[in-house]
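Target protein
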Amino acid sequence: MEVLEEKEEVEQRAEDLNSLNISDSLQDVETNVPEEEVSVPSDVPGFDWSSIDTSQLPSSYKTNSQKEKKMLQIADHFLQQYIHLCPERKPLFLHPANECGVEKFVSTTVRPTLLPYPELYHWSGCASFVSNYLTMEPLKCPITPPSSLYSPTTILKYQRGNCFDFSVLLCSMLIGAGYDAYCVHGYATLEICTLDQTQDLCPLLRKPQEVPVKKSRKYRVRIPSEPQSKFELQQKAKKNEEAEDVEKKEEEEEAVTEVEKPKRDPLHGLRVHAWVLVLSGKRKVPETFFINPFTGNSHNTTDECFLGIESIWNHRNYWVNIQDCRTGCKDLSFDLSDAVRWEIMLPESNEPLTESPERDMDYMETEEKDMSFEMPLSWVARIEVSHSEFENQYSQGKKVILYEKAKVEKWAPYVNENGLVERLTVYADLDCTEVVEVTEWFRNREDMLDMREMNKQTQLTTDYFSPGHPLLLKAHTYTSLEQVTGHTMEFYHKARADDLWKRVENATEMIEYFVGRDDFLHIRHVEFGERENGMDTAGTRTDVNLRPILQIKESFHRNPEKPADEDVEERIFMITDDSIQLTYHLEDHDTIASKVVYLRAIRRDRKEEEIFLTQDTCVKYQPWSSEKHKNVLHLYTLLWELRKQQKELKHQVRESEAEVLNVLKVREDEEANVKLTVSVYNNAKRERRHEAMVGS
């Protein structure tokens, strides 16, 4: 039988097996599998499953009930009929042994459970938990299913398993959460089976697809196109095609030299894998999809990584795929009620039997006898995950995933003292030696730091904060925490009294951006001179030796309640030149803005400042102004107000400088003494934290 089965397999996959010297029996194939195909990855420590303690397991793990024995008999009879009708197919995965050495039907190993965590109510949360919590173990033989299938409780206890263990646990959680989920026994590519993601783009680097917005125009003028020669167009198209062919050849040559083509897998199409199928319908799932339990990622059913399906099952029934999988899974129908495409083991009472000329009468009689038989309840104990286990999802304290030119590291909360839970490192080369950018994510920090981006090429670091920072920080970009190096700070402007949104500062200037102010101010640009005596304040935190202010420029949005010739758009205070320039907004029909310039109108006596307005000290250009602005008294009063505002602005600039210094000092202290918050609902963490504080 094995010889016949192998011959049929060779006929079906002749194009995949030309480079293989497969022997005449399946046993020879199994024994000749290369060592690297069955060896455990270097980052997965070895584990002896024969040494686990099964003495404390419930009796359901060690014996079979009468209903379970009946189910095993039905499965054996089903398998005999299946082999008789489909001799070219491989044996089904029906009743492997559990951890106690007792054969259990695969459907009874599925234990639907809804765990009490909001994250596990959605399929993505369940898939992420399983892929993070368990350590992947490859199948002993990559082309045959395992001889045993342990309970999900044992797999959770030891936090490791193969693809079948991953799938059964994930399927149990998804069914408990209300999804129409099934375990799948099939075939996949080498990368899927061995959890090799080094050729995949990191999900964190994928940019969302932008949907182009089409603006429909009901009426538009059609401009006639200029006449063109067809011959010239043909010649131009030929030249473009030749140029494109040359470019493609050059790109292909560069790609070959840069990246070695992956070696052809000699076991392509034969590698056994298990994953999860989620059908549309329940939980408002719009479309049927696959879940790879090793990664927790979803895949379309037409994904070329999945090469075929032998069977699927849930906690109620078992189905065998009758469809052709020569083109993979892209043409498969997942209508399980279709008896032509799926052979069901326990016919459901609400489905009429479909006679087929390919079925034997004995088989049909057996189906009729088993119509009233229902799947036994799961022999697995209730699946439980404690709060600490849910928080510390990584069995080795850390998880590392390698992608193409990227590496992702994950930690459980509170493992790192600085609250680091995830890090993405982007490289410039495939060997991952030259770092381009590093992004880190944090949790539970008192300073509300959420994410940090570090560009290794520009040496710029950007910190992002969640709402709640004492200084209302939203983002901070810097090269170091020294003032002279330059900083860009963003704030939660709605929580600030001055509506400041962003401040950009370096050694020579400071620009402040405002949003939603009552006075319509939106930009303030300050220019500084060199410090006196050429001294540098790097490393100091004093207010001495401040930078002299050379110029202050403010820009205002249009105030619709004022006439344009009375609404200032821009005002510039040139401190060193002792002059002030005002530029007013334009009306819709205007082309030139009105301006007023005061040039050295201040003369200082021994007692106080005095203002002298002359034709030389006040220059105005107001082509659209009213009579009010031509009044000298009005210009005199306006200048006095501007002088007061200039003093206030200088004071505000000094306050902004002091605020920058304060932010840098606070951030320096926060980074030197990182404190993590603990939820009031996490009693264990709070007690440990209290003990640590008392002990110190």
In short: Residues 65 and 589 are 92 Å apart (CA to CA). Residues 1-44, 256-260, 350-370, 534-543 have pLDDT under 50 and may be disordered. The longest helix spans residues 632-672. The chain has 14 helices and 27 strands.
